[in-house]
Each structure stands twice: as C-alpha cells, then as structure tokens.
Specification:
8 helices; alpha/beta; four-stranded antiparallel β-sheet; six-stranded mixed β-sheet
Length: about 240
C-alpha cells in the first residue's frame, strides 16, 4: 500500500533550512494496522501529511497503491485523496454549522453524489459507529468521543483504501479511546489499511506494528507484541526473585 524510499523533507526558516525528514525508508502492506510513535518534533506529523498528499517531499520516492506520488497538481492530489484516503484528526475537524449526518456525508458531496443518496449512506455509517440516533445533532451537542466517531464515519464513507489518523485518541478519556480503537480494529479486520500517529503506548500496543521516529529518522520497527516483550521479561524476572 505504502512504499517510501529515501524520503527527505526540508522547511525554510528565514535564510536557513530545517531538515525534518532525513531519509525515510518505509513499507506498509495492504491490510496492516500500524502505529507511528516518537517525541514532538520527530517528523511524525510531517510524514503523515506526505502520506496524505497534503504536503510534498523534496527528495526520494513515494508510491501509494503502486502510484508514484510526486508534485501532483491540485486536481490530481484531490483525486487521489478522495479515491484512496480517509483522515481522522485529534481535533475532529467537524463543521460546526452542519449536523452529524451532514458532516459524515461531506466527502460524497465532493464526489458529486446526490443529496438523498449521500444522506442515506451517512446514516448507515453513523449507525455503524453507534450514532444513528444523533444524526440531527450539531457537533457542539456531542461529547468528544461522539465527535471522534462522527469523524471516523466521515473518513469511512468514501470507502478509502487507507485511513490516516493523527492522535485520534489524544483528546479522549481511556474508555472512549478504547471504543475508538475498537472501530479502527474492526475496519482493519475488514481489510482496510490503518496508520495511527500516537503518543500513547496503550494505543500502539493494539496495533500490529510500531514504527518509532526520532530526529527525522525511523529508529526502530517491530510488532507491538515484541515491543512489550522486554517489560514482560522484567516482570517475569521480578516474579522469580519474589519466589
């Protein structure tokens, strides 16, 4: 699904340049559930913007489902975003002047789907995330968890091949975060590729693979279970000592 080779990204700051991504090599297969972790400023969000064709890169190669993504026109970039990608953000990014159903239906509006059909589908996707009864409510009448589920329904309605989620549980309590992750795992089991940027170890532990960033580089990749093995080993050793 995603193939990155030697990706570099610079940002201009006055007369100097900041080297944000310093040669990223990364492969994410179709159907994977992957988390990306790292400290603030490590390049995670920059990478996600490149994957989402919201920002370009300066050097290297990015292939999305076999298509080379490089310096696309605005029209082509919008086409690939609509065809391949669904986005979920920490801040939800819902339109306050539209109700839940209208927010979910918005991607289909840009695909020129008729109003009756897109509202029908929006209700189906709200039902899928447990919010059909809240369809007529505006975002400010919903809790944070409900707003995030609306945002997930909006990301899913165009049936993308890849979901990109930037800190999707960052503003949620533990129970609601668990509910949101269950939705991601459900759509992943149905075959959708999901990439989640997160600071939370309990979120990354629920993914198939964890990719760790530092200073614009991938410093470690491994299965989530493997990431937890050292802690489990220490606990076993402590238990042996107690005995």
């Amino acid at each position: 699904m995603i193939q990155l080779t030697d990706i570099h990204k610079y940002y201009s700051i006055g007369q100097s340049k900041m080297h944000v991504l310093q040669g990223i090599d990364l492969h994410i297969a179709q159907g994977e559930l992957v988390s990306i972790m790292g400290p603030s400023g490590s390049g995670k969000s920059t990478l996600l913007n490149i994957l989402g064709i919201l920002d370009d890169y300066d050097r290297g190669d990015y292939y999305l489902a076999g298509t080379h993504i490089k310096k696309l026109s605005q029209t082509k970039a919008a086409y690939y975003r609509n065809k391949f990608l669904g986005f979920v953000f920490q801040s939800f990014n819902l339109l306050s002047f539209k109700n839940a159903m209208e927010n979910v239906a918005l991607p289909l509006y840009y695909q020129q789907v008729g109003r009756r059909e897109r509202n029908k589908l929006a209700l189906e996707y709200l039902d899928r995330v447990g919010l059909k009864d809240w369809a007529e409510h505006s975002p400010n009448e919903l809790s944070g968890g409900q707003r995030q589920r609306v945002a997930i329904a909006r990301a899913l309605i165009s049936q993308p091949k890849l979901i990109l989620a930037d800190e999707p549980t960052g503003a949620l309590d533990t129970q609601t975060s668990h509910e949101v992750m269950e939705i991601f795992k459900e759509v992943n089991r149905a075959g959708m590729t999901v990439v989640i940027v997160t600071h939370e170890n309990d979120i990354s532990a629920q993914t198939d693979r964890v990719i760790r960033f530092k200073d614009g580089l991938v410093v470690n990749e491994g299965h989530a279970a493997q990431d937890n093995e050292p802690a489990a080993l220490i606990n076993d050793q402590l238990e042996d000592i107690r005995k």
